[in-house]
Amino acid sequence: MQLLSTLTTLGLLTPPEGAELVALVPGAIVTLVAVVFILLDVFHNKGTSREYQAYFAAIGLVLTAASCWYLWDMGLERPVFFGMLYLDRYSLFFSGLACASAALMILASPAFLRSHQMDRGEYYLLILISVAGMIFMVQAADLLTMFIAFEVMSIPLYVLASFLRKDSRSAEAGMKYFILGAFSAALMLYGIALIYGATGTTNLEYIRENLFFLSAAGASHGAFGMVMIGVLLILSGLAFKVAAFPFHIWAPDVYTGSPTPSVGFMATAVKVVGFATMIRVFSVAFPLEVLRGGFFGWGWIDVAFVFAIGSMLLGNLVAVTQDNVKRMLAYYGIAHAGYLSIGFVAANSHPSFFLHNDAILYSLTAYTVALVGAFGVLSYFGRRGEAVETYADLGQLGIKYPKMGMIMTICVLSLAGVPPTGGFLAKFYIFRTGVDVGVQTGEMAFIYMVIVGVIGSVIGAYYYLKVIVYMYMKPALREVRPLATKGKLWALGACAAATLYLGVFPAKPIDVCRSAIMSMSGVPAEVQATIDRGQMELDRRLQVDED
Amino acid sequence: MSWEPTLAHYLILSAAVFTIGMVGVLVRRNAIILFMSIELMLNSVNLSFIAFARYRVDLDGHIFAFFIMAVAAAEAAVALAIVLHVFRHKRGIEVDEMQELKH
Fold first, then answer.
1. What is Dmax (Cα atoms) for chain A?
2. Would you state the pLDDT for residue A301?
3. What is the mean pLDDT of residues A254-268?
4. Which residue segments constitute the domains of chain B, with CATH numbers given?
């Protein structure tokens, strides 16, 4: 007691204020659900179905998403816990999206796991823990929190990839994911160490301040070289997670070998969180005006530009040659990382374009619901412990199972970018961002990037329409059985409905994305000025509407 | 003549160990050796964190090193489980024999 009060008077042990604890709410809820889940699993009657566990986990995730919605207007100006976590609409938006993806994929899982004789409670637990990591990752205000959350997110995913114990392909997938994942995490860590060495801090905002200070004081080339290498290493660590060229090699193998429903989670939530962290870290901590010219005169933006072009070309071209749908979706995931990088490069090339980041948020939302739907439909069918994964397996499914055919068609059209769906608008929005920035800066590189993107999505239409052709027009080669549960039907229906909603009534979702991006705290003054201008315009528009 | 190692010495050592680890991951084929090389990379990062922290008389780097150790332990647990899982199926842990997923 004596010691406690001494520490308190010394200011070493200040109890956090109530307002600070609010920042923990979404992460705490999902962690609590995970802990209760362990207890639930202990009292499970052997030999009975575990479907109720899926519903429990999904309800927990829905509660977490609801808490994000509840906290929407309660964002905090400053990072809490000595500059460790932010709580703003930006982080709440991405937490909610990660929860939605996890909940939908969990609902799609039980029958699939049963047919592979791996109906284990750990599966849901791993997803819950991974979501907890994701929530803290998008809230991170310090490279330390970011790194820990990054690992809390990744380690369960390695286990999920190798979850099918009876399947040697799943073992191989887990191995590949682990080796390459740990390798990229080590690269990122070395980057963090170099930046810590050059700036003396790991806090995002202090890093920025110290970088300005270093450049004003005329720091040596050595210090800036260190920072540049560090920035590039962090970029590659995150590029690995979102499967962007040239860090994409793991994706096709891992997506093919892992259990289908968990791939749906890996492919969407991880990409969402990876891009969210990328935007946050790079726009808060690494101002281009200081860092361009440190190293060959190339800023990180040029490297991201190369990633974007490479991902779009490679992803789309190789996807055409695949005959496995899961592998095709993996290559599309790579291409999509490229499309998103167009937005990332364009919107972050200058502080005055910062608000264009909303295209990335919208695109991630549309991509998440459509891809979750597509993987859900794939995991809906099975054949004596084998998954349905090749194009040929899809033969006639659309006619025999009209509901599934409908949902798959909607999701696939959205991924291909066909008009009445969210995917069309997402692509349009991203490409418009690139053109907009290109026209305003007169820099042709942005326009070229968009041209590559448009050509890529034309190629993309080929392999997506092929899915529909097989589902409706090709003969069935082998008999498949549906692996249906009620929850799965609802989840898949929700994906299709959300995809259509995003395409037909986009105004509201776009406003949500915009207000999420405008709320990002800790941004530099120039970015804040852009945000304030955007806010004023928005207010004026609303005023006009009222009049 | 007394000689004191400076920050640069620690950084060079750390970069060397990191490179050895990286080359190990890229060149070796045994899964356990790959895992060892990754541990080498993580520990070289620890070394540079500690060196920077001592140089700057700042605690953040020390704390970061502790967290890296904790994460490395968690990764080790998962890695060995996955290696066992692979061994059960393939009776070997050479990574260049993992070709099943390539078409």
1. 79
2. 86
3. 92
4. 7-97 (1.10.287.3510)
Map residue A245 onto helix, strand or coil.
Answer: coil
Average pLDDT of A239-253? 91
Q: What is the mean pLDDT of chain B?
A: 91
Predicted pLDDT of residue A138:
95
Give yes or no for a contact between A246 and A310, defined as CB atoms under 8 angstroms apart: yes
Of B31, B52, B88, the CB nearest to A196: B52
Alpha helices (H) in A71-119, listed in sequence order: 89-107, 110-115
Q: Residues 6 or more apart from A334 whose CB is under 8 A from it?
A: A243, A244, A245, A248, A251, A311, A314, A315
Reported as a single tens digit per residue, the pLDDT across A84-107 is 999 999 999 999 999 999 999 999
Residue A386, φ and ψ in degrees, nearest 5: -105, 150
Task: Give the strand order in the sheet containing A481-482.
Answer: A386-387, A381-383, A481-482
Contact status, residue A476 vs residue A392, Cβ threshold 8 Å: no
* 8 Å CB contact of A171 and B88: yes
- Calculate mean pLDDT across residues A386-415: 87
Phi, psi (degrees; rounded to nearest 5) at A516: -65, -45
Q: Which residues of A touch B101 (CB under 8 A)?
A: 169, 172-173, 176, 252-253, 256-257
Q: A111: which residues sit within 8 A by CB, 6+ positions away?
A: A382, A483, A484, A485, A488
- pLDDT of the residue at A385: 65
Query: A73-82, A238-247, A337-346: which has the minimum mean pLDDT?
Result: A73-82
Taking CA atoms, B44 is separated from A237, A259, A414, B12, in Å, by 17, 35, 46, 10
Return the pLDDT at A295: 46
Which pLDDT tens digit goes with each residue over B20-40? 999 999 999 899 999 999 999
Residue A171: list chain B partners with CB under 8 A: 82, 85-86, 88-90
- Give CA–CA dist A124/A110, Å, rounded: 10
ipTM: 0.95
Is residue A347 helix, strand or coil? helix
From the list A312, A304, A370, the residue with the least C-alpha distance to A336 is A312
Nearest to B71 among A151, A165, A200 (CB): A151
User: Looking up tokens 């080669």, which residue turns up?
Assistant: A477
Q: Where do the H-state alpha helices sit in chain B? A: 7-27, 31-56, 60-90
Q: Where are the domains of chain A?
A: 22-546
A329 burial level (CB within 10 Å; 0-12, 13-18, 19+):
buried
Q: Per the CB < 8 Å rule, is A175 touching B101? A: no
| A309 in Cβ contact with A449 (< 8 Å) | yes
